[in-house]
Specification:
There is one protein chain. By secondary structure, this protein is α/β, with parallel strands linked by helices. Helices cover 49% and strands 12% of the residues. It has 19 helices and ten strands. The chain has helices at 14-18, 21-33, 44-47, 53-69, 83-93, 97-100, 116-125, 143-160, 162-167, 179-187, 207-215, 220-235, 242-255, 271-285, 307-312, 352-369, 384-405, 416-426, 435-443, and strands at 3-5, 72-76, 106-110, 131-136, 169-173, 190-193, 260-265, 293-298, 317-324, 374-379. The strands form two sheets. A five-stranded mixed beta sheet has the order 1-10-9-7-8. Helix 2 crosses helix 17, helix 5 (83-93) runs parallel beside helix 11 (207-215) and helix 13 (242-255) packs across helix 17 (384-405). The radius of gyration is 23 Å and the shape is globular. The termini are far apart.
Length: 445
Amino acid sequence: MVNFRYKQFENLSESDFKAFDDRLVQADKYFREKNGPGNDFLGWRDLGVRPDGEEYARIKACAERIRANSDVLIVVGIGGSYLGARAVIEYLKTPYHNQLKDGNPEVYFLGNSFSGGELNAILSLCEGKRVSLNVISKSGTTTESAVAFRILREYMEKRYGRKEAAERTVATTDANRGALLSLAKQEGYECFVIPDDVGGRFSVLTAVGLLPAAVAGVDTDALLQGAIDQRESIMNAGLDNPCYRYAVLRNIMLSRGKTNELLVSYDPDFRFMGEWYKQLLGESEGKDKKGLFPASVTYSSDLHSLGQFVQDGSPIMFETIVRAVNPDPKSPVIPFDEANGDGLNFLAGVTMDEINEKAMLGTLLAHRDGGTDSAIIDFGGKDAYSLGELIYFFFAACAVSGYILQVNPFDQPGVEAYKKNMFALLGKPGYEEGKAELMEKIASI
């Protein structure tokens, strides 16, 4: 199970946790009884326990078909429609999985920006390769994804013809409505469901994340089992379980004026897990002028860029270190060098994982001395089961932390503001009224 350690925090006592007891009791009740704000989006809480067996079997069959007939899968989606899948694949298969030629199809992600250069580059990588698409959108009208899919749909139809292009396109969308569902029915795309009661940032353990992960060769059975077991651990525990302790600590730090939480990993493969975490916590808690600002770093790389600020800058943050406790049996060993020109013979026979661990401990102590406290989340290691545990740990901690903060963790009203301005500036029908005002504002910039 995932564990959480915070004993090294300065001036932190049990009374600090007890000060949040009333809010924690209420948050736990909301979580267990599914009757708090946003409760209609708590479907992820039990999804691994009561999965749709028929749908999951179809996901696995579809993944095997893509693996058999395609060299490349392009996943089209933004936010929760791609971050979780990419995070799982890159952590378990490394960010270099597409270059490693390990027998799995290459997986690329588009529709998460308006970058034409990125789209052209990925299409160039597809030359001479068999391609399938997985377009992921609840509505089918999310602008970034819809723009990319329109271009990719034309690309596929020109390359394969309309019939085969449809056979190579999979839609993950709403079960009953939406532009993408209508198009999928019209063209004959195979469809998978984004459940009504699961928001995008909580959707990685649905078809949204499971299909791309399975295509990339991830053991999705183990991923789900890890989440199921972590859920049982939380549900069977008392209020002092590690997940709740983490949720309370976040609120303690915010009450002390720490406005930023820095998610730290010492594994570069974890980088997109950090991106996923930022959406999960940022969209869930950043409302009503409340919440910690979630950021992520990869040490020791970022110690050579942000380390000075963390050590000696404004005291606005605390660190949460995510640490895989099982060492990599293939970690390279430092060799002995007779000349010892670099002075590293004191490390001869030591693995890089062992050096990484000492770097983590040394950094933790240095940052604490500089006024930046660091908590540690321990989980098993670089395997699908352990990652499933960690994902569910963050899901539950996010929900409970949001309820302690007294916000609805499952809506995101602020996301729409930029879209209204963008649509008006692009001349979308129905948004004409605000365009003139926006143009005046732009002129004054």
